[in-house]
Amino acid sequence: MRHFFANLLLFLFVANLPAFGNDLFIVDDIQIRGLKQISPGMVFNYLPVTIGDTMDENRIRKAVRALFKTGFFRDVRLERDGDVLVVTVEERPTIALITFDGNRAIKTEDLEDGLAEAGFSEGEVFNQGKLDKVIQELRRQYYANGKYGAQVDYEISPIGEDAIEIAFLIVEGEAAKIKQIKIVGNTVYSDEELLNVFKLKTGNWLSWFRKDDQYSKQKLSGDLETLRSWYQDYGYLNFSIDSTQVSVSPDKESVYVTINITEGDSFVIDKVLLSGTLIIEPIELYGFVFTRKGDVFSRKMVEATSKAISDRLGHEGYAFANVNPIPEVDKESRTAELTYYIDPGQRVYVRRINFYGNRKTRDEVLRREMRQMEGGWISTPKVERSKIRLKRTGYFEEAVVETPAVPGSTDLVDVNFMVEERPSGNLMLGAGFSQGAGLIFNTQVSQDNFMGSGKSVNFTFNNSEINKSFRLGYFNPYWTIDGVARGFDLSYSEIEAGRRRIARYDQKNVSMGASFGIPFTEFNYMNIGINWERSEIQTDQFLLDPIIATFLAREGRKYDNFRLQTSFSYDTRNAGIFPDSGTLQRISTEIALPGGDLYYWKVDYDSRYYFKIPFKRNFTGLLKSKVGYGDSYGSTTELPFFRNFYAGGPRTVRGYDESSLGPQDIFGRALGGNIMFVGNAEMILPLPIQELKSTRLSLFYDVGNVFASNESFSFSDMRMSVGVSGIWMSPFGLLSVSYSKPFNDQFGDEIQKFQFNFGTQF
Fold first, then answer.
1. For residues 454 and 486, is the Cβ–Cβ distance under 8 A?
2. Read out DSSP for 431-465?
3. For all residues of the chain together, what is the average pLDDT?
4. Rounded CA gap, 124 and 95, in Å?
5. Is-contact 548 641, C-beta < 8 A?
6. 96 three-state secondary structure
7. Structural contact between residues 474 and 447, judged by C-beta atoms closer than 8 angstroms
8. pLDDT band, residue 93 (cuts 50/70/90)
């Protein structure tokens, strides 16, 4: 403020000077002196004097006042040189640099944006009055984040003659902690029920991590809106928040929040009507209405109905349809007549589909995933499905869609997809450790999007205590224009089964084959593959189980087989990794065809169902099951032992050693079985920090086992476990950890409560 008063005194002094004596004169010309950065035209624009005006004392005061008011000058003088008016000014310095020191809670970019909105930024003329206001604004921002002890100061340093640097010095201090949140006026719901939906909390054992006990004005506003939604979801249409008081302790370290509410009465729906322009048959639209007569009025269900009707209209090309629900309340009967007013607007057509960000991927690769077509009317579900298909290609980190209107048209839009490409090539050298597989080394060279064509080629090499293998593969997801896929692969592997707690034998496999993928619908897919495989079994004669010895004596140790593998899947999951809704169902078969050395078949069914748990917000349920059966046919008398199913370990029944369950040989080692039952139920928990999107934490219940068809079995033979698991998609690979408590375990079972995998697929 010191500069303000100095300027004011200067103004009063200059304005009362008898600069021209007592003589009046007519201005014949005007000269501006002292300008360095500001143009003369800008001065003339603000100067209330023109050639021909008669100068007097009053006009002098107005001229000086007008120039000072611009904020550009620290000194203004008016003088007379004959009939020429001479205006001499001294410019204020320009702000050349603004810096911040000490800000951690608020980003520098956010502070700069706030200053720019106040007209205080680099390149602007310095104004002390604006600076004082900016200081108050910075303090206000920190107060809004609960930092009531924050101190904001500044230093001004000259840069040359006409420029300055302003350094803001910030001492944030600690955020004030919420000591109490009190709700006054609630009778239907307890404080505990209501505060449970708040993001702001009083101090708890997770507050050090979640920071939910630190007061924030924005968070409180969000919680108040959540509270309003809570009551309106249960029919309290007249609910109101009367007042909110936030009190700060004298030491500025504690915050006390008091919320005064009026609950009102709960209303039920008496009638549901559809009005407006009904371009779709009402009987169909009523199928999207989630509110019925006699239901408690719920804003959530009303909004869901509006969205469902809008989406249905969007499917017909009415992308900008407006569905407005209006309740008519009868306070005496506490009922509401709900009317959905529908305004579909104009049907909108797609002029052009554009792609941005695909620097490597060919345009045709993106266009073949489109379900929305150019020239047709826009369909919201088709646009959304197109975006999902782009993301599921695996070529892009992100895909965002916009539908801007075409300038000058009321019924045309463009559909713009902004994609962020993943690296198309990958060279990976890595190592990992698995309790079942031991130390693992892997090398992978792949090109998932070869030359931007959407085709993939890869070479993989793995080396562990159990398995040594390599694979060379090629895959074209669009072998035909209809989306039929074709792939080829060549592989070699050596398996030391003894390290999987199976009888001591080694197995060598060489295979080559081709596969074809056939899409039937958006969600149904069939895969057919045929390959040739040569297997060789090497054994320790002295430690060989009679069952295996009998099979080898009858069938030999080397086998050439032609295998037909098929699978049919139904997949509606909303994401390939970490989905939280949708279903995956897959049935797979494997048949050793006639003409080979062995004759057998296997079939297994795999299902996964993701759903929201209704009684717990933000909780996701997952139900998994896997059932398998295998047998022989023709001259082969039983399913080959190396094609058995196995259970136990992180991928089936946690808490038990990997592949340790089921029938055992005379040495106590697992043989596997030709029948498998596995079931899993998980409750996926919301994480305290929303940014941890690459992490999933869940509680689980596992049940399962494998059996041989020649033995009797019952549900009491199933092994079970409960526990907690975590999965982290780390920069170095997938890390999965679980701790479980087995029960219904039997004598001889290998228990393993803590299990983990790192660097392997799941």
1. no
2. EEEETTTEEEEEEEEEETTGGGSS-EEEEEEEEES
3. 81
4. 6
5. yes
6. strand
7. no
8. confident
Are 272 and 338 in contact by the 8 Å Cβ rule? The answer is yes
DSSP 8-state class, residue 134: H
DSSP per-residue codes, 318-380 = -TT-EEEEEEEEETTTTEEEEEEEEE-----EEEEEEEES-SSS-HHHHHTT--S-TTSBP-H
The strands making up 240-248's β-sheet, listed across from edge to edge, are: 177-184, 254-262, 240-248
Pick the closest to residue 60 from 8, 7, 9, 24 (CA basis): 24
Q: Which tokens belong to 732?
A: 């170095």
Tell me if the domain spanning 2-91 has CATH number 3.10.20.310. yes
Give which of 585, 590, 611 is closest to 601, Cα–Cα: 590
pLDDT at 656 over 70: yes
Compute CA distances 588 → 37, 88, 385, 516, whole Å: 78, 91, 26, 14
Domain range 349-421, its CATH number among 3.40.50.620, 3.40.630.10, 3.10.20.310, 3.40.50.2300: 3.10.20.310
The larger pLDDT score, comparing residue 161 to residue 349, is at: 349
Region 425-758: CATH code: 2.40.160.50
Task: Report pLDDT digits (tens) over 669-726.
Answer: 778 889 999 999 999 887 655 555 668 889 999 999 999 887 777 778 899 999 999 8
Sign of CA dihedral 456, 461, 467, 468: positive
Whether 109 contacts 141, CB under 8 Å? no
Cβ atoms of residues 229 and 300 within 8 Å: yes
Task: Find where tokens 């949708």 sit.
Answer: 582
Which DSSP symbol is given to 264? -
The contacts found for 53-59 with CB under 8 angstroms, 24 or more apart, are 53/26, 53/27, 54/24, 54/25, 54/26, 54/27, 55/20, 55/24, 55/25, 55/26, 55/27, 55/80, 55/85, 56/24
Give the integer Cα–Cα distance in Å for 762 and 755: 14
Contact 603, 629 (CB under 8 A): yes
Model pLDDT for residues 198-222, shown as the tens digit of each residue:
888 887 776 666 667 777 788 888 8
Tokens 């103004």 correspond to 11
Cβ–Cβ < 8 Å for 742, 656:
yes
Which residues are paired to 262 by β-bridges?
240
**What's the CA gap between 243 and 261, in Å, rounded?**
7
Find all residues with CB under 8 Å of 577, minimum gap 6, and list them.
729
Tokens in use for 579? 């989905």
Same CATH topology for 177-262 and 268-343: the answer is yes
Q: For position 757, what pLDDT does the model report?
A: 65
Q: How far apart are CA 141 and CA 150, in angstroms?
A: 10
Q: How, if at all, do strands 524-539 and 558-571 pair?
A: antiparallel
Token pair recorded at residue 293? 């007569």
The answer to pTM > 0.85 is no
User: Could you state, in order of their start, the residue ranges of all structural domains in the chain?
Assistant: 2-91, 94-171, 177-262, 268-343, 349-421, 425-758
At residue 587, the 3 state secondary structure works out as: strand
Q: Using CA atoms, how far apart are residues 120 and 351, in angstroms rounded to an integer? A: 43
